[in-house]
Q: What sequence folds into this?
């Protein structure tokens, strides 16, 4: 290891492959709110590779600035949910009965595998620019903090407020685990409280009161009988969902309850805005007391944009709809079409046996590297 | 005030009427667990009147021991629910728009009015015995602590465990507020948890889980559609009740809940024992997961016993069923038929404007005094 590489930190060495980089990124523990050490290491590495770097809190933005006609943004979050007890670090490489050759440990899937892919790409781009073989598109790498916690702390949201210019681009890829398949757009989400009201009384003389929990039967009946819609948007079929996520009522073991609150989460296709989604929920619960508590619009897939279509063709896979709300919606709000595309099966995220297939690390990297570093048009692309 | 009366405390003076005694008992604050000062004052007073006295914790038992063929037990609790803030002491006497001449303040209704009636009777009995005009029945007065809190702390329950002999009698009257009408027996009460189980999943992909709250629709449907029974027992019609008193489910705002628990309170007529009542509830929720959490049998009115029939006739009122579970059930368990009969409208108990009609204080005292101190048979009685 050279002195220069040493001063550039543990992620900067030129011979680290994506598997070893995933290990190292994972082994720099970074539970939400505690991403500073990892952000420092990433900042040092991308600076050493000659990229234009900006730091905001524990978010790092690294860019090529080549005045290319098109800019692509690659983004990933640095934080993980807390480690299981006992800690499952360091990351292990092992043979999994179903998944074969995998890295196992907190963050391997969600989403330090994706961060490692970003880092290799940043290094390769830095080397290409230094060698005068600059890419055909400018690229922005965004590494951000606090994705796994409440929205107000989200580092990508903070960047969008403080430096919206740094997130601009023609197309964005969020390297969230998607099993190396393009997942387009995302469903919106909103929550309402459906409230029933009664009159308290001693339960020994129930006829003097009115039982609000019994009235909630009507709320649960409608939820149970509701058939979620499937909505086609830009060729992708988004499955919706309308679900009670909480129910709460009751004063004491001998009192007729005067209030019951059912909290309902509606996941709605990105073709509807929040107002339309709220209207739909109010229609389902017509005649009942409904309060909107929070809402976030979904994101349209935007797969008809040239850069997006080109990229999808490059992956050689059929895009799927993304059901969960993700930070692609923040790009969508900035007018940047965005998709999820990254290594790892989301089903193992946050799990005790969180893992990522090594093959997916290599494949994601290869697809992105070929797309970003090749000069010619994509195979099958029609730009 | 004589020196002897002073040493016997604030409740012992021979010229205190039932209204003034109610005031004084109320003004000795005694929220559950803090009854010692009031118990001390009562113990000193009943000792000064020459009764046989036993103290157990903050319960006081005072008796005549005249070897009469029949013994009557009069019982009342000393504690109140906490005072409102600011404290509504001292008690006020005022003209109420509906109720006329009333005492207003914490404890006036539940049940220091009844305790004051007990005290005047104890004093009169002591005087009668001293004067060689002993009553035709022996009388036991029970003043006990912690009725307003969890059953395990109940002073009458503790006496029943430590000194069951002291509670024996042919008939017991609990001076709980009953608007000066005999309320016979009491309903039993049990609680069950009706549990629905599902499978947790992210609410963005609800189809991978199973919503336990939606399944609880079936539980609430059955409760809503249930028609409570009315059961005639010894000529009294007991209204039953089957009510959700709590519902709880939900993990997080984005998770399909895997468990929902509806707590149901069943108030059942005293003709059924706990096993029969539990079987009835299990029938209502057939096919669902049901757990019994607590149960207490009711109490049969026992109005056909001679002492009971005699007393009821003496009151000149038609007895009513008691719906709420009360400590009469503890006497019932000891084989002592018991009724509720005391001053105060139970509807104002625990309320900020808790109050007791002065006329009811005088009437309850007159009825009991005439019954216990007269030598001849009761009017209309058939002993």
A:
């Amino acid at each position: 290891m050279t002195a220069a590489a040493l001063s550039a930190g543990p992620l900067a060495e030129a011979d680290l492959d994506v598997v070893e980089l995933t290990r190292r990124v994972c082994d720099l523990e970074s539970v939400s709110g505690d991403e500073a050490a990892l952000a420092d290491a990433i900042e040092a590495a991308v600076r050493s590779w000659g990229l234009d770097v900006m730091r905001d809190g524990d978010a790092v933005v690294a860019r090529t600035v080549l005045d290319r006609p098109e800019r692509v943004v690659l983004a990933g979050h640095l934080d993980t949910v807390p480690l299981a007890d006992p800690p499952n670090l360091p990351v292990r490489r092992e043979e999994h009965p179903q998944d074969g050759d995998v890295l196992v440990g907190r963050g391997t899937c969600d989403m330090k595998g994706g961060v490692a892919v970003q880092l290799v790409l940043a290094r390769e781009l830095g080397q290409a620019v230094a060698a005068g073989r600059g890419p055909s598109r400018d690229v922005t790498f965004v590494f951000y903090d606090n994705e796994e916690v409440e929205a107000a702390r989200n580092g990508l949201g903070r960047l969008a407020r403080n430096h919206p210019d740094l997130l601009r681009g023609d197309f964005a890829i969020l390297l969230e685990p998607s099993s190396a398949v393009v997942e387009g757009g995302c469903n919106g989400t909103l929550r309402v409280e459906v409230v029933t009201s009664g009159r308290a009384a001693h339960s020994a003389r129930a006829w003097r009161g009115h039982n609000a929990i019994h009235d909630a039967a009507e709320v649960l009946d409608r939820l149970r009988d509701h058939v979620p819609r499937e909505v086609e948007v830009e060729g992708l079929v988004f499955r919706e969902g309308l679900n009670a996520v909480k129910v709460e009522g009751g004063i004491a073991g001998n009192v007729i309850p005067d209030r019951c609150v059912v909290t309902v989460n509606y996941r709605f296709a990105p073709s509807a805005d929040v107002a339309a989604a709220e209207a739909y929920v109010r229609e389902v619960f017509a005649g009942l007391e409904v309060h909107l508590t929070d809402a976030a619009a979904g994101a349209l897939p935007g797969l008809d944009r040239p850069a997006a279509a080109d990229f999808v063709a490059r992956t050689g896979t059929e895009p799927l709809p993304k059901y969960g709300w993700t930070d692609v919606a923040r790009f969508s709000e900035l007018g940047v079409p965005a998709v999820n595309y990254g290594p790892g099966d989301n089903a193992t995220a946050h799990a005790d046996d969180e893992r990522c297939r090594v093959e997916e690390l290599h494949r994601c990297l290869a697809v992105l590297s070929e797309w970003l570093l090749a000069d010619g048009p994509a195979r099958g692309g029609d730009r």
Summary: Chain A has a mean pLDDT of 91.
